[in-house]
UniProtKB/TrEMBL annotation:
InterPro entries: Homeodomain-like_sf (IPR009057), HTH_AraC (IPR018060), Tscrpt_reg_AraC-type_HTH (IPR020449)
Molecular-function GO terms, alphabetical: DNA-binding transcription factor activity; sequence-specific DNA binding
Name of the protein in its database record: AraC family transcriptional regulator
Family annotation (Pfam families): HTH_18
Protein backbone atom coordinates (compact mmCIF):
# COMPACT_ATOMS: atom_id res chain seq x y z
CA UNK A 1 0.00 0.00 0.00
CA UNK A 2 1.36 3.40 -1.02
CA UNK A 3 0.82 6.50 1.16
CA UNK A 4 1.82 9.84 -0.37
CA UNK A 5 2.32 11.43 3.02
CA UNK A 6 3.98 10.62 6.30
CA UNK A 7 1.83 9.15 9.09
CA UNK A 8 0.11 11.63 11.38
CA UNK A 9 1.37 11.62 14.95
CA UNK A 10 -1.91 10.12 16.16
CA UNK A 11 -1.64 7.15 13.77
CA UNK A 12 0.27 4.83 16.07
CA UNK A 13 -1.91 1.97 14.88
CA UNK A 14 -0.46 2.44 11.36
CA UNK A 15 3.25 2.46 12.19
CA UNK A 16 3.41 -0.45 14.57
CA UNK A 17 5.27 -3.73 14.77
CA UNK A 18 2.07 -5.70 14.05
CA UNK A 19 1.65 -5.36 10.28
CA UNK A 20 -0.62 -7.40 8.02
CA UNK A 21 0.69 -5.93 4.74
CA UNK A 22 3.53 -3.81 3.37
CA UNK A 23 3.19 -0.03 3.53
CA UNK A 24 5.26 2.55 1.66
CA UNK A 25 5.14 6.08 3.07
CA UNK A 26 6.65 8.78 0.85
CA UNK A 27 6.56 12.53 1.23
CA UNK A 28 8.41 15.67 0.22
CA UNK A 29 8.27 17.87 3.29
CA UNK A 30 9.38 21.32 4.35
CA UNK A 31 9.32 22.62 7.89
CA UNK A 32 8.86 20.45 10.96
CA UNK A 33 7.49 16.94 11.24
CA UNK A 34 7.51 14.93 14.45
CA UNK A 35 6.40 11.38 15.14
CA UNK A 36 6.72 10.26 18.78
CA UNK A 37 8.72 7.26 19.92
CA UNK A 38 7.07 4.02 18.86
CA UNK A 39 7.93 0.38 18.26
CA UNK A 40 8.57 -0.36 14.61
CA UNK A 41 8.06 -3.29 12.26
CA UNK A 42 10.87 -4.17 9.87
CA UNK A 43 11.21 -0.58 8.70
CA UNK A 44 13.46 0.91 6.02
CA UNK A 45 14.22 4.59 6.66
CA UNK A 46 15.69 6.67 3.82
CA UNK A 47 16.01 10.35 2.98
CA UNK A 48 17.01 12.20 -0.18
CA UNK A 49 18.01 15.81 -0.97
CA UNK A 50 18.59 16.52 2.72
CA UNK A 51 19.36 14.46 5.82
CA UNK A 52 16.61 13.39 8.20
CA UNK A 53 16.98 13.23 11.97
CA UNK A 54 15.81 10.29 14.05
CA UNK A 55 16.25 8.76 17.49
CA UNK A 56 16.79 5.01 17.17
CA UNK A 57 16.76 3.08 20.44
CA UNK A 58 17.68 6.31 22.32
CA UNK A 59 20.57 7.12 19.92
CA UNK A 60 20.42 10.09 17.52
CA UNK A 61 21.00 9.03 13.90
CA UNK A 62 20.56 10.53 10.44
CA UNK A 63 19.54 9.12 7.06
CA UNK A 64 20.59 10.82 3.83
CA UNK A 65 21.40 10.33 0.15
CA UNK A 66 24.44 8.34 1.24
CA UNK A 67 22.99 5.90 3.78
CA UNK A 68 19.81 4.39 5.17
CA UNK A 69 18.68 2.30 8.13
CA UNK A 70 16.78 -0.98 8.35
CA UNK A 71 15.04 -1.53 11.68
CA UNK A 72 13.93 -4.70 13.43
CA UNK A 73 10.46 -5.36 14.83
CA UNK A 74 10.32 -3.85 18.29
CA UNK A 75 13.03 -1.23 17.71
CA UNK A 76 12.08 2.15 19.13
CA UNK A 77 12.10 5.08 16.70
CA UNK A 78 11.33 8.78 17.05
CA UNK A 79 11.12 10.90 13.88
CA UNK A 80 12.11 14.55 14.16
CA UNK A 81 12.41 16.25 10.76
CA UNK A 82 13.22 19.97 10.80
CA UNK A 83 14.07 21.28 7.33
CA UNK A 84 13.73 24.58 5.50
CA UNK A 85 14.30 22.93 2.13
CA UNK A 86 12.49 20.03 0.49
CA UNK A 87 13.28 16.71 2.17
CA UNK A 88 12.18 13.47 0.55
CA UNK A 89 11.43 10.69 3.01
CA UNK A 90 10.76 6.99 2.48
CA UNK A 91 9.44 4.88 5.34
CA UNK A 92 8.82 1.32 4.18
CA UNK A 93 7.07 -0.79 6.79
CA UNK A 94 7.35 -4.47 5.89
CA UNK A 95 4.95 -7.19 6.88
CA UNK A 96 7.05 -9.55 9.01
CA UNK A 97 5.77 -12.67 7.24
CA UNK A 98 6.72 -11.12 3.88
CA UNK A 99 10.25 -10.38 5.11
CA UNK A 100 10.63 -13.88 6.55
CA UNK A 101 9.53 -15.54 3.31
CA UNK A 102 11.86 -13.43 1.16
CA UNK A 103 14.76 -13.99 3.57
CA UNK A 104 14.14 -17.74 3.75
CA UNK A 105 13.96 -17.95 -0.04
CA UNK A 106 17.24 -16.05 -0.36
CA UNK A 107 19.05 -18.20 2.21
CA UNK A 108 17.64 -21.64 1.35
CA UNK A 109 19.16 -24.01 -1.17
CA UNK A 110 17.46 -24.63 -4.51
CA UNK A 111 16.99 -28.29 -3.52
CA UNK A 112 15.12 -27.46 -0.32
CA UNK A 113 12.86 -25.01 -2.14
CA UNK A 114 12.00 -27.64 -4.75
CA UNK A 115 11.45 -30.33 -2.13
CA UNK A 116 9.19 -28.56 0.34
CA UNK A 117 9.03 -24.84 -0.38
CA UNK A 118 9.62 -23.00 2.89
CA UNK A 119 8.51 -25.81 5.15
CA UNK A 120 10.92 -26.49 7.96
CA UNK A 121 13.11 -23.44 7.36
CA UNK A 122 13.90 -21.29 10.38
CA UNK A 123 15.87 -18.38 8.95
CA UNK A 124 15.10 -15.11 10.70
CA UNK A 125 16.27 -11.60 9.91
CA UNK A 126 18.07 -9.61 12.59
CA UNK A 127 19.63 -6.31 11.55
CA UNK A 128 22.33 -4.45 13.52
CA UNK A 129 21.54 -0.82 14.39
CA UNK A 130 24.08 0.63 11.96
CA UNK A 131 23.85 2.67 8.74
CA UNK A 132 23.91 0.96 5.34
CA UNK A 133 25.42 2.55 2.25
CA UNK A 134 22.78 3.76 -0.20
CA UNK A 135 23.49 2.63 -3.75
CA UNK A 136 21.89 3.39 -7.11
CA UNK A 137 20.11 0.02 -7.23
CA UNK A 138 18.31 0.49 -3.91
CA UNK A 139 17.61 4.15 -4.67
CA UNK A 140 16.07 3.35 -8.07
CA UNK A 141 13.92 0.60 -6.56
CA UNK A 142 12.62 2.93 -3.84
CA UNK A 143 11.37 5.43 -6.40
CA UNK A 144 9.99 2.61 -8.57
CA UNK A 145 7.56 1.68 -5.80
CA UNK A 146 5.76 4.98 -6.41
CA UNK A 147 5.10 4.21 -10.08
CA UNK A 148 4.16 0.54 -10.05
CA UNK A 149 1.04 -1.42 -9.16
CA UNK A 150 3.31 -4.37 -8.29
CA UNK A 151 5.00 -2.78 -5.30
CA UNK A 152 5.38 -6.08 -3.43
CA UNK A 153 7.60 -7.40 -6.23
CA UNK A 154 9.75 -4.28 -6.02
CA UNK A 155 9.88 -4.50 -2.22
CA UNK A 156 11.10 -8.09 -2.54
CA UNK A 157 13.84 -6.84 -4.90
CA UNK A 158 14.81 -4.20 -2.31
CA UNK A 159 15.14 -6.90 0.34
CA UNK A 160 17.12 -9.16 -2.00
CA UNK A 161 19.46 -6.24 -2.72
CA UNK A 162 19.77 -5.52 0.99
CA UNK A 163 20.62 -9.05 2.17
CA UNK A 164 24.17 -9.11 0.66
CA UNK A 165 24.80 -5.73 2.30
CA UNK A 166 23.62 -7.17 5.61
CA UNK A 167 25.89 -10.20 5.16
CA UNK A 168 28.93 -7.98 4.51
CA UNK A 169 28.08 -5.77 7.48
CA UNK A 170 27.78 -8.75 9.82
CA UNK A 171 31.16 -10.02 8.65
CA UNK A 172 32.79 -6.65 9.36
CA UNK A 173 31.21 -6.52 12.79
CA UNK A 174 32.53 -10.00 13.52
CA UNK A 175 36.03 -8.87 12.50
CA UNK A 176 36.04 -6.45 15.42
CA UNK A 177 37.47 -7.92 18.61
CA UNK A 178 35.24 -6.05 21.06
CA UNK A 179 33.18 -8.45 23.17
CA UNK A 180 29.93 -6.50 23.45
CA UNK A 181 27.68 -6.26 20.41
CA UNK A 182 26.80 -2.66 21.32
CA UNK A 183 30.51 -1.75 21.33
CA UNK A 184 31.08 -3.36 17.93
CA UNK A 185 28.10 -1.49 16.49
CA UNK A 186 29.37 1.82 17.91
CA UNK A 187 32.80 1.23 16.37
CA UNK A 188 31.15 0.35 13.06
CA UNK A 189 29.06 3.54 13.11
CA UNK A 190 32.14 5.68 13.76
CA UNK A 191 34.16 4.04 11.02
CA UNK A 192 31.20 4.43 8.66
CA UNK A 193 31.24 8.19 9.38
CA UNK A 194 34.97 8.26 8.60
CA UNK A 195 34.36 6.42 5.32
CA UNK A 196 31.69 8.97 4.39
CA UNK A 197 34.18 11.74 5.19
CA UNK A 198 36.64 10.15 2.76
CA UNK A 199 33.98 9.85 0.04
CA UNK A 200 33.04 13.51 0.46
CA UNK A 201 36.66 14.73 0.22
CA UNK A 202 38.12 12.53 -2.51
CA UNK A 203 39.51 15.46 -4.50
CA UNK A 204 41.27 16.93 -1.45
CA UNK A 205 44.46 16.05 0.37
CA UNK A 206 43.27 14.65 3.69
CA UNK A 207 45.35 13.27 6.54
CA UNK A 208 44.86 10.28 8.81
CA UNK A 209 44.33 12.71 11.69
CA UNK A 210 41.43 14.37 9.83
CA UNK A 211 39.83 11.03 8.99
CA UNK A 212 40.22 9.79 12.57
CA UNK A 213 38.76 13.04 13.90
CA UNK A 214 35.64 12.46 11.78
CA UNK A 215 35.23 9.18 13.69
CA UNK A 216 35.93 10.92 17.04
CA UNK A 217 39.02 8.77 17.63
CA UNK A 218 42.73 9.36 17.88
CA UNK A 219 44.73 8.26 14.86
CA UNK A 220 46.29 5.16 16.46
CA UNK A 221 43.02 3.80 17.85
CA UNK A 222 41.25 4.51 14.56
CA UNK A 223 43.97 2.86 12.46
CA UNK A 224 43.87 -0.31 14.60
CA UNK A 225 40.07 -0.61 14.49
CA UNK A 226 39.80 0.25 10.79
CA UNK A 227 42.30 -2.49 9.91
CA UNK A 228 40.40 -4.94 12.13
CA UNK A 229 37.11 -4.24 10.40
CA UNK A 230 38.20 -3.68 6.80
CA UNK A 231 41.38 -5.79 6.60
CA UNK A 232 43.06 -2.81 4.92
CA UNK A 233 44.44 0.54 5.99
CA UNK A 234 42.47 3.79 5.61
CA UNK A 235 45.02 4.84 2.98
CA UNK A 236 44.32 1.76 0.87
CA UNK A 237 40.57 2.25 1.29
CA UNK A 238 40.83 5.89 0.20
CA UNK A 239 42.97 4.95 -2.80
CA UNK A 240 40.39 2.34 -3.80
CA UNK A 241 37.59 4.92 -3.64
CA UNK A 242 39.62 7.32 -5.78
CA UNK A 243 40.34 4.65 -8.37
CA UNK A 244 36.66 3.69 -8.54
CA UNK A 245 35.67 7.32 -9.13
CA UNK A 246 38.36 7.72 -11.79
CA UNK A 247 37.22 4.53 -13.54
CA UNK A 248 33.61 5.74 -13.75
CA UNK A 249 34.63 9.19 -15.00
CA UNK A 250 36.93 7.75 -17.65
CA UNK A 251 34.19 5.41 -18.85
CA UNK A 252 31.87 8.40 -19.21
CA UNK A 253 34.48 9.99 -21.49
CA UNK A 254 33.75 13.61 -20.56
CA UNK A 255 37.14 14.51 -19.08
CA UNK A 256 40.78 14.03 -19.94
CA UNK A 257 42.96 11.58 -18.03
CA UNK A 258 44.74 14.47 -16.32
CA UNK A 259 41.46 16.08 -15.25
CA UNK A 260 40.20 12.77 -13.89
CA UNK A 261 43.48 12.19 -12.08
CA UNK A 262 43.35 15.44 -10.11
CA UNK A 263 39.57 15.33 -9.58
CA UNK A 264 40.03 11.97 -7.84
CA UNK A 265 42.64 13.40 -5.49
CA UNK A 266 45.79 11.94 -7.04
CA UNK A 267 48.79 14.26 -6.96
CA UNK A 268 50.77 12.70 -9.82
CA UNK A 269 49.51 11.47 -13.22
CA UNK A 270 52.35 8.93 -13.30
CA UNK A 271 51.41 7.50 -9.90
CA UNK A 272 47.73 7.49 -10.90
CA UNK A 273 48.49 5.59 -14.12
CA UNK A 274 50.56 3.01 -12.24
CA UNK A 275 47.89 2.38 -9.59
CA UNK A 276 45.12 2.32 -12.19
CA UNK A 277 46.89 -0.29 -14.33
CA UNK A 278 47.60 -2.45 -11.29
CA UNK A 279 43.90 -2.32 -10.33
CA UNK A 280 42.20 -2.58 -13.74
CA UNK A 281 44.85 -4.13 -15.97
CA UNK A 282 45.03 -1.24 -18.44
CA UNK A 283 46.27 2.33 -18.53
CA UNK A 284 43.66 5.08 -17.93
CA UNK A 285 43.77 6.34 -21.53
CA UNK A 286 42.62 2.92 -22.79
CA UNK A 287 39.14 3.49 -21.35
CA UNK A 288 38.63 6.66 -23.38
CA UNK A 289 39.23 5.01 -26.77
Amino acid sequence: MIHHNLPASAMKDVVTHNFSKNHVFFSTTRGNYHYPTHETPHLLVANFRESGQYVLNTRKVTASDSHFYMLNPGDKLEIDLRKKHALQTFLIAFDQTFVTHVFQTATSSAESLLDDGLAGTSATLSVPAVPFLMNAHISDLLYSTLQSSQEDEILAEILLGFFPMLHDTRNRLENLKAIKRSTREEIYRRIFVAEEFMREHLSETISLDQIAAAACMNRFHFLKLFKEMRHMTPHHFLTSLRLEQAYQQLKAGRFSVTEVCYAAGFQSPASFSHLFKRRYGCVPSALRK
